[in-house]
Amino acid sequence: MSSVSPTSERIRKFDPEAYRFVYEALHFTQQKLDRAHAGEESEEAHITGQELAHGARELGIERYGLLAKTVFRQWGIRSTADFGRVVFELIERGEMRKTDRDQLSDFFDVFDFDEALDHDYQIQVPTSG
Length: 129
Hints:
With 129 residues, the protein is mainly alpha-helical. It has one domain (2-7, 14-118). Helices cover 47% and strands 3% of the residues. The protein is built from five helices and two strands; from the N terminus they run βααααβα. Strands 1-2 form a two-stranded antiparallel ribbon. It is globular. Residues 5-9 have low confidence and may be disordered. This is Verruc_Plancto-restricted protein. It comes from Thalassoglobus neptunius.
């Protein structure tokens, strides 16, 4: 997937913030995978659905911490498949591009939301003594 610009105001199925976030997650993932230096139209800049889903999870945790799952749910995103639905809406509107290999199913069951967004968090409570 590569980006154009999230400017269209057509009817959206998810909260507008979800579209902005996925667009930002694409750039975040390209940078993380050292693909940001390639032109957005080049094959070297391409991010797979699985890579984008993992990048969105990482960016969500970085930005929202323990609230990431709650924020995503408020936007209407309840699974990795929903990230894909956002991406494919952006593609339909001409705001992202895809290759012939990219499919919505690339986003299905990439990770379990509850586990992936809550798993690594442990709250440390100081003991008195």
